Amino acid sequence: MRAFAVLNAHGILQSMNTTAPTSRPQLVYLVFGAETYHQEAVFSIASALSFLRDEPDTGIDIQVFTDNPEPYRLLPVRVRPLDEATRKRWSEPHGYHFRTKHVVLRQVLQESEVALLIDTDTFFHHSPLALFERVQPGTLLCNAFYTKYGDNHESILYSALYQRLLDMGVADDDMMTLNSGVMGLTQQDAHILDRSIELMDELFPHAQGAYTLEEFCLSIAAYRTLNVRECPDLIHHYWSRKQLFRAKVKAWIAKHRANPTSATALDDTRQVSAHLPRPPRLQRLMYKLITLALPKHQQQFIREILYGCYEHENEFDQACGPVWWDKARQNQEERQGRPVDAHLLEHWFGNPVVRLILGERREAIYEHLIKSPGK
């Protein structure tokens, strides 16, 4: 059978062979750059596998488009190397790197009847099969709805683009805006991605650097065209409070790096929960009372430091302690309008009351903050 490929107008390598597309659902990740993104992806994949092992006869493939295949060596995935030149081409004409998400999914949908691209900062509450059940012809599956476009006239996307979009006849105040942490489509609806890519290319020069232009263009492309469903009940997307969840993920990686698909490793993915690891309310009240003995400008700082000292039963929640310490420092800097530098840390941590409150933990916390750059 003859086969060849061409680049279409969006820079997508488009297959021109006559091979029938696979009917197996494709779960797709796009991962490049810093190590933390690869750690997120490995954990997200493992959380998917923890549910799929309960359904061994299901035919789901996992694909990873990446600049670094090594982290996925021990996972049952298809790695698709992504070099810098290709990624750059997929980001053109404006160098907008989120554009590559749509290009990747569009390419997979040339080869597959149904595909779902998911961001790395996610993990599964249920089987990936449950997500694919929501991806039907005529339907776009997204992560979640935000609000109607007209609900926030102060947003850059509204002030910069509203009149232009109204003149184009493609959006109005009633359009729901979408979170694209999940994008699931059938092959017959892949043309929506062609449209979203066109919109990104057209609107980027006018969007004043709006970070969420990519998912906004997906919202426009789907508006009045496809049924849209969401899935926050099936996955957790930790785009907020990211450092706390990254600490949990890094603790899981450190424990299971050598065998990420072992039964213990997959079981442990269920121990990484979506809740924020804060001390119980009664404990927080106690922290508030004991810090009243400190000067007023130090009370909130030490109170938040204590959040990171609480001993959680869950080992992955326990790993979040240093994140609370860093956040305490960041919050203090915002309150006082200047850095919490080494001199100030030495003065505050030398306070006899702070020594008494923190006890033997004081030195470790102090050393962590001294070595960590201020925000």
What would you note in describing this structure?
The chain is α/β, with parallel strands linked by helices. The protein folds into two domains: 5-237, Alpha-Beta Complex (Spore Coat Polysaccharide Biosynthesis Protein SpsA, Chain A), CATH 3.90.550.10; 277-371. The chain is built from 16 helices and eleven strands. The protein has helices spanning 35-52, 84-91, 99-111, 128-132, 156-168, 191-203, 213-222, 242-256, 263-269, 281-290, 296-307, 315-318, 321-336, 342-349, 352-358, 362-371; strands spanning 5-7, 13-15, 26-31, 61-66, 78-81, 114-118, 122-124, 139-148, 176-186, 227-229, 235-237. Helix 1 packs across helix 9 (263-269), helix 6 packs across helix 7 and helix 14 packs antiparallel against helix 16. The radius of gyration is 24 Å and the shape is globular. The N and C termini lie far apart (58 Å).
Distance between the termini: 58 Å
Total beta-strand segments: 11
Query: What is the H-and-E element order?
Result: EEEHEEHHEEHEHEHHEEHHHHHHHHH
What number of structural domains do the residues give? 2
Unreliable stretches, pLDDT < 50, 5 or more residues? Answer: 1-7
